[in-house]
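Hey team,

Filing this mostly as a record. A colleague (T.K.) asked me to run one chain through the structure pipeline before their review meeting, and I want the input and output archived in the tracker in case anyone asks later how it was produced. No errors, nothing strange. Just documentation.

Input sequence:
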Amino acid sequence: MDTFLFPQGPDGKPPQVQRKNVLLDATIRDFSGGWNVVDNDLNLDTKFSKLLENMQRSIDGSNSVRPGTRLFADTEDYLDEIINCEYFNNFIVCVGANGKLVKIDSSGIVTEIWNDNLAGALPGAPSGWATTVFASFAQFNGSLIVCNGVNKPLIIDTSMNVTFLQDLADKTNTNTPIARFVVAHGRYLVMAGSLDDGLEDRLFISATDVGGTWVGDSAPNDAVNLDLGSRVPSGSNVIKGLGRFRDKIMVMFENAILPGTLGVFDGSDHTPTFDDAIENVGAISHRGIQTIGEDMLFGDVAGISNVKRALFTGNVSSSRASQLIDPAYLFSVGNLAATAAQEDRVWSLWDSQANNFMVFVPDTDVAADTTETRCFVYKRNVKLKIAAWQDWRNWNFRSGCQSALKRIFLTEGTQVYILGEDYVGGDRVFKDYEGDQEMWDDDTPWSDYTGWNPVADTADSGVPIKFVWELPWSDNKERFLTKASRYIGFDTVGDNRFLVEMFVDNIYKDRSDLGEDWVEDTLKWDDGLGWDVDVLDPTLSMVFEGGDAPGFGGDEFGEDFGGGRPTRLEKLFAWTARYKIEKLRISGDATKELKFIAITLAYQRGSLRR
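Output structure:
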């Protein structure tokens, strides 16, 4: 026998081949993709998230729990429900469903500025506004114009005095249009959205530099009305909204956009031009249109789109911005079967401080039955090449505005809330509804994440923000090989607890679960099944603390005493499981800051066989 080919050990037996168990690690630091529901999570890169509820992609590249909200003012003494609001001249102006208007100063003091009595004190003793479900605003020539589509528009001057918009020469508003939509563009005040039959496609354009002078008023007067229905290439000819984009007025229809140019004259006649049409894209609501720097973002029944101008030709074109979340968006919009609900109650807001385009969609047609108004958030920063979606839940806000200091105000019912700021040193709020609701003694809210009202202690009020972050399936770039996880680690900021769960090998839901029992007893339906509630089946689960947690016994009594594992410690946390593919899910109830910078999983590479 050839001893070179078959070597013998000292005891005459062939030696065993020694295998080394090399510990590998995989670290996820790139969360730039944001929320993605359109792609299968078996194919997604780890920079995307399959679920990203109440979390956001921060400017520094981390994932953090979204800001909370705090009660700022309550208008219940004057309004029955706030249907829209606008920031003007250092005040928040709110329109109530009862047709009344109030102003709110920087201290949260509410003052009524429009009602039947104030209207009756004007020359001619006119009536005030009737009940309304819609309102829109435009700031023009230093004044605020308010329209509702039911009554003649109002104008609010810099002294916060309110009167009807009228022609200053004739001292009458006979020719002032009644319209739902109003926008200021260039030197003109533009209205549309008449509820009168035959005027659904009419665009009302004021005289140059004069917001109260319209067609029919005394000269000098270059006001003009245009019927645009014949220019719509497809779909309904009913105007859905108005927007501004650079030097263009954007008239939105169901399935088309007409960009127009104002300020074009033929002699003394104002002749606006509409010589282009963008087909197969439109708007769902006037309140869903936002002009953001060089772009304009808006939602329709098919998704959320933007409008851009070509660099060299100057032509206006549209592209879809919501490809990654279209199924979720379409599901929410599909809950609104009534066109009126889409037009009146779908709205948007641009948070320039956080670079968030926020689209709010209620979960049902009837306002009184609405339990949640879901917020689709588009984190967008062109300079930093950030474009990521987030899903913000457990809110039911109906309107909002941004102040001169870039603070965001949101309204629900008769109340106005302020949104917390993201940056260190700002007004940071880590719970929802602070000053308005509070939790049970064990710091838990109701199952719908609302609390008790009114509060006993404002300083200890607020309800937790329920967050869920689910990553896609990952194979560590070795799909066939079995892996054995050994340890897990996190780089985090904040001191909130969070639950980490790991699923392996496509085992996600508990297939043996028969459904949830009735609340009153343990009985099920006649077929032996209960309520269809998904029960997850993680292989591993563990509670951790944020990186700024003080540790065992170092926090306030009753908070995290003896609680989760502190991620600030550079120690090994055992995390043992065998898998070919794995998925991580992080969830919890946030009442404090929590930010994820990186996740590291240590594992050993195995064979092809499970």
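Quick notes for T.K.: The helical segments are 116-120, 326-334, 339-345. Residues 438 and 456 are 8 Å apart (CA to CA).
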